[in-house]
Write a structure and sequence with these properties.
Bound molecules: adenosine monophosphate, glycine
Strand content: 25-35%
Structural class: alpha+beta
Distance between the termini: 43 Å
Largest sheet: 6 strands, antiparallel
Number of helices: 12
Shape: globular
Length: 423
């Protein structure tokens, strides 16, 4: 029997929790800090512990004797929450601070990829404005400028002219838009193709992969507007054919996990490969993340016919080979309902009335929601994720949008073209 602590507050954690609740192993689920969609008995009081404070986390986890802690977002992983809990013998689903650098530092990720000979864009790292600019001028456009360090997906600029790149470098070095994380910059070759996200869950030795999803990062229809955390996704993504998936395993996951082991830091937890797949079907890595993707998780987990709690526990304990699971047929889609203005400054405290979906094929996952005086209101840019499973992609897309048509929440918007590329 298992007492679980889930860390996080997004749509991703809502989907993880939904799946955990189906597990016969679950005795109790605590979530911290959670959101307005979690039952009150699951949400821990905000002063339970300080997530950034090692002693506070250790004390709370020991008092509660958790059987497993599942870490949703990247920040606590990069801070070392897994190592803190491992020190006191509490199993964690999520990589160590060393391994989490694969997301925490683009420079670290790129040098590991180079060492493991993983296909990715050519790059150089710079610590000052002038040498970065000289390099950009030498290479020409299109070119991609990335602030090193965590920047909530906002540190990347795809530049179609040298002037755009110059502007991006100015923002990083001169305006210090990303603070200290802008102290270094990775400049990368532009890769053409279609993106896909693939999750591998590893116990340090073995790994399993979940079906590929395609995220929609731009705010508006037709891939227009600013980059966001993700406005919707669908799964499986047909761009990730059998042959692509095989290459992803042999050229990307195998050598990455092998390298982590060789360095003495076996990777345990989820490794998210953000891929660019060329017209010729060659996958290259855009980025790695050290955790489940958001909103991809809200559709990928809908395709999992298996016990997520058992899988996470096995990954944490190193016995993934004992776990049996299946992938369902059909397809799933998630569409994010966002607050007007997102990803820039956006409306908050929007009153939310969320009708029943009437079917378990359509699920409403809360993200930026909270309860104020007993009433549900918005508190974040991405408010809800509407997710559905259908007999095929068209069926799941139709289900999601038929529900969204019934939602009348002021000051919100959503993309109307999620999965369109694959229909
Ligand atoms: P990242 O935060 O590294 O995932 O980058 C955010 C988005 O920028 C990606 O999802 C891609 O759409 C785009 N991007 C990043 N790097 C490249 C690249 N080298 N070539 C083309 N597009 C890129
Ligand atoms: N949806 C992109 C991410 O989770 O990073």
């Amino acid at each position: 029997m298992s007492r679980i602590l889930l860390i996080g507050s997004g749509g991703r954690e809502s989907a993880i929790a939904y799946k955990l609740r189906q597990s016969p192993r679950l005795t109790s689920l605590h979530v911290f800090p959670g959101n307005g969609g979690f039952p009150e008995n699951e949400v821990l009081p905000p002063d339970s512990f300080q997530l950034k404070d090692k002693e506070s986390v250790q004390k709370f986890a020991l008092q509660n004797q958790y059987d497993l802690v599942i870490v949703g977002p990247e920040d606590p992983l990069v801070d070392g929450v897994t190592d803190w809990l491992a020190e006191i013998g509490i199993p964690v689903f999520g990589p160590s601070a060393y391994c989490a650098q694969v997301e925490g530092s683009k420079d670290f990720a790129k040098s590991l990829m180079k060492e493991a000979k993983v296909p990715t864009a050519k790059y150089e790292t710079f610590a000052d404005y002038q040498s970065a600019l000289n390099y950009v001028k030498g290479e020409g456009a299109p070119i991609v400028v990335k602030a090193d360090g965590l920047a909530a997906g906002k540190g990347v600029t795809v530049c179609f002219s040298v002037q755009d790149a110059e502007q991006a470098l100015k923002e990083i070095f001169l305006d210090q838009k990303f603070g200290v994380s802008g102290a270094k910059v990775v400049i990368e070759e532009f890769m053409d193709g279609q993106e896909a996200s693939i999750f591998a869950i590893s116990d340090g030795e073995r790994y399993i992969t979940l079906p590929a999803a395609q995220d929609h990062k731009r705010a508006y229809d037709g891939d227009k507007g600013p980059n966001t955390g993700g406005m919707g996704a669908y799964c499986p993504a047909p761009i990730a054919t059998e042959s692509v998936l095989e290459k992803v395993n042999t050229l990307i996951f195998d050598p990455m996990f092998r390298l982590f082991r060789e360095k003495g830091y076996p990777y345990k937890g989820l490794l998210y490969a953000g891929l660019m797949i060329s017209k010729e079907g060659e996958p290259r890595v855009v980025e790695f993340n050290c955790r489940f993707g958001d909103p991809e998780t809200q559709c990928v987990l809908s395709m999992l016919d298996g016990d997520l709690l058992e899988i996470c526990q096995a990954a944490a304990k190193g016995n993934l080979s004992d776990v049996e699971y299946d992938i369902l047929s059909g397809a799933s889609t998630v569409v994010v309902l966002a607050a007007e203005g997102y990803p820039e400054s956006y409306a908050k405290n929007i009153p939310l009335e969320i009708p029943e979906t009437g079917t378990k094929d359509i699920l409403v996952f809360h993200a930026g929601t909270t309860k104020k005086d007993g009433k549900l209101v918005s508190s974040g840019g991405r408010i809800l994720g509407i997710s559905s499973r259908g007999k095929d992609l068209l069926d799941s897309v139709n289900k999601v949008y038929s529900y969204l048509n019934k939602l009348h929440i002021p000051q919100t918007f959503y993309r109307k073209d999620i999965a369109k590329k694959a229909l």
